[in-house]
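User: Could you write out the 3D structure of this protein bound to flavin-adenine dinucleotide? I've included everything you need below.
Assistant: Certainly. Input first, then the structure.
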Amino acid sequence: MNTITDQKQFMLRVEKKVIENQTHATLGFSHALPFRPGQFIMVWIPGVDEKPYTISLHTRERFAITIEAKGIFSKKAIALEKGDLVGIRGPFGNGFDVKADAQVAVVAGGCGMAPLAPLVEKLDKKAIVIHGARTREHLLYPDRFDMERLFCTDDGSFGHKGLVTALLEKQITSGKHFDMVYTCGPEIMMYHVFKICEAHHIPCQVSLERYMRCGFGVCGACVCGKQVVCLDGPVFGSAVLREMKDFNTKALLKSGKEVALSQYFSWRCK
Ligand SMILES: Cc1cc2nc3c(=O)[nH]c(=O)nc-3n(C[C@H](O)[C@H](O)[C@H](O)COP(=O)(O)OP(=O)(O)OC[C@H]3O[C@@H](n4cnc5c(N)ncnc54)[C@H](O)[C@@H]3O)c2cc1C
């Protein structure tokens, strides 16, 4: 096991691979990283590319990333095996402001559970985790946490049939008090979670994704309104979100062209 280091760039071998489902795999590394839940690393596969991934599991001795297969890079990444070498830069970004002993809700959509998982493990057992996905098979880490967990699926194959926002709203209107709501998932989902929080005067923190290249605020590829997502985020709180006109509306492609969010996330419809 390597020891904790401030070094931000190193090569590591995959120590463990877990197939989560047909489209997701988790790669584990035996290396201690300084880390706050919500931070991300840049992962380089030699000869392929380098892309941002959030840390989905963190202990004093190891960390892991969970990858959803989408395009060339992520398909290569989930095909990596124990012993394969990857380059790591980071961790980067701000991470969540952890309210460990408060009454909080964590709202995850699909692979959005990945950055939220290390946060959940730092929270008090009285936190509520609301987790939605397309089907039962797509729910990540179904048995990982030791706290109240509410599930929903689009097809009704597990838990409530419907959206995480309906479950959150029901918790609030039935009298549950939340000091904070943390969320990660499709941006449209996070937008509606934020709107529900605004209506009920609950602070909210969302983890945003934009196209990233450098990871530390130099290249400008991930600019979102006035924010540089890799440097100022990827986690943003209610006060910033209220002013962020590109939230749930626009994003920059790899080329730098500004497009509607539906076009930026068009892989979701494939
Ligand atoms: C801070 C952050 C954390 C992330 N954490 C995770 C995670 O834990 N698990 C996970 O599966 N995915 C995560 N992603 C998304 C992941 O980086 C992309 O899905 C991946 O780069 C896809 O590459 P590809 O070649 O397979 O797909 P492509 O076909 O190249 O792209 C598919 C989609 O992935 C996104 N994407 C592609 N390249 C980048 C890039 N350089 N930066 C940001 N988004 C990109 C875009 O939405 C694009 O439309 C994260 C992204 C960010 C910004």
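The helical segments are 72-78, 113-120, 164-173, 187-199, 229-232, 238-243, 261-264.
User: Perfect, thank you.
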